[in-house]
Specification:
This protein is mainly α. It has 15 helices and seven strands. The strands form three sheets. It has a three-stranded parallel beta sheet with strand order 1-2-3. A two-stranded parallel ribbon has the order 4-5. A two-stranded antiparallel ribbon has the order 6-7. α3 packs across α10 and α12 packs antiparallel against α13.
């Protein structure tokens, strides 16, 4: 089995294997450049733009809600809700229920309500949901596929049903623009735009029909409204992270001041105790990212802190090697066997799926091409630093 040397950004520690990452001729990735360019942004001007956009939709909405804020109960959705209330707007908070909600996740959802908002929670059929979890894990190596689809479809469906045109998303994944609501013309949130950010990973909702007894009637909440429905209401969206300087750590501190609860120790596979607290299946989801691309959540977090000067590169690398990509025996203290039992899968089946999705070019193998694992089932990357 031919291995490859992984190239890393020379400023942070993100590997070139990250999808859509570009490392320039100076060895610096585009994510680091985006943070660097923030120093040139007039945040006061952007906040004013945000207020003007929402006020424009507010006048159209009265006496309806000013906007929809999709919330999970996490630090960022707390922050989004707090900011909307601070600016004097009346949001409707909408939750697409997560795959396997944790106890702390439920408490944090209840805390969002206590901020003083109207709130809707939509729960898809849990029997069908577990079948989809299993199918998605088996076919594309992503147990969280139904969650990542539903968090984009359900708020938009509610927007159509309740005639609320404006949706306030959180962080801008591309860090390039504010979203269609910022456009003067052609600012409807089309299906094509939504799919770009929803990310179906090659598995369409329609592909599920006929598998494991799944019928079209089971997939209503996972299905986007039609472009005609979106246009009739004028559904649009904007990314709050474009208008306010986005920082997960800062969002967590603000959210804690309003009652957001953190975990009692560092989350498994992570570097922090303040994020990804709602879904017990997240440990499996993040592990598959490591198997496919050679980096996990600890790398993401280390890079975020390096870019903001809270860690130096050597510290980030040391912490990442300690925490990244460990076999997810537990997550939020829940044993993996319990999580797998929810989707009717044995540990042996799970390990076989892990091996099938592992990119062997990124990990150490023996002379026969078999993955080398330690006593705890952990893999070793071919390199953790530029060679």
């Amino acid at each position: 089995m031919e291995t490859r040397s992984i190239r890393y950004c020379t400023r942070c520690i993100m590997p070139e294997t990250k999808p859509d990452l570009f490392i320039d001729e100076e060895g610096v990735c585009n994510a680091c450049r985006n943070i660097e360019n923030r120093a040139e942004v007039d945040w006061g001007k952007r906040k004013k733009e945000l207020q003007e956009i929402i006020q424009r939709y507010q006048s159209k909405a009265a006496p309806n809600y000013d906007c929809i804020v999709p919330v999970s109960g996490g630090k960022d959705s707390h922050f989004q809700t707090i900011k909307m209330l601070e600016m004097g707007f009346n949001p409707l908070c909408v939750t697409a229920t997560t795959d396997q909600l944790s106890a702390i996740g439920r408490r944090n959802i209840e805390n969002v309500k206590k901020l003083g908002v109207d709130y809707i929670e939509v729960t898809t059929n849990p029997v069908v949901r577990r079948r989809i979890n299993r199918l998605a894990l088996t076919e594309i190596g992503d147990i969280s596929w139904p969650e990542h689809v539903a968090i984009f479809t359900i708020p938009v469906r509610i927007a159509v049903q309740m005639n609320i045109p404006l949706i306030i998303w959180g962080e801008n994944p591309q860090n390039e623009y504010g979203g269609p609501a910022a456009a003067v013309n052609d600012n409807t949130l089309t299906r094509r735009w939504l799919e770009e950010f929803g990310g179906l990973l090659g598995l369409r909702v329609s592909d599920l029909i006929g598998q494991e007894g799944i019928e079209p009637k089971h997939l209503i909440q996972f299905t986007y409204p039609t472009d005609e429905e979106l246009k009739n209401v004028g559904v649009t969206g904007l990314f709050l992270g474009y208008y306010l300087p986005w920082d997960g750590y800062g969002n967590a501190l603000i959210s804690q001041a309003y009652g957001f609860e953190t975990f009692n120790h560092t989350v498994e596979g992570s570097l922090v105790n303040y994020e990804n607290l709602d879904n017990v299946q997240t440990g499996i989801h993040d592990y598959f990212k490591f198997l496919k691309y050679g980096f996990g959540r600890a790398t993401d977090l280390a890079c975020m802190h390096i870019r903001r000067g809270r860690l130096n590169r050597a510290e980030g690398l040391r912490l990442t090697r300690m925490h990244d990509g460990k076999f997810p025996w537990t997550y939020l203290g829940v044993p993996i066997e319990e999580t797998l039992a929810e989707i009717g899968m044995s540990l042996e089946e799970f390990i076989a799926i892990c091996d099938r999705f592992t990119n062997k070019k990124l990990f150490q193998c023996d002379s026969r091409g078999n993955l080398i694992k330690d006593k705890d089932g952990n893999l070793s990357k071919v390199n953790y630093e530029n060679i």
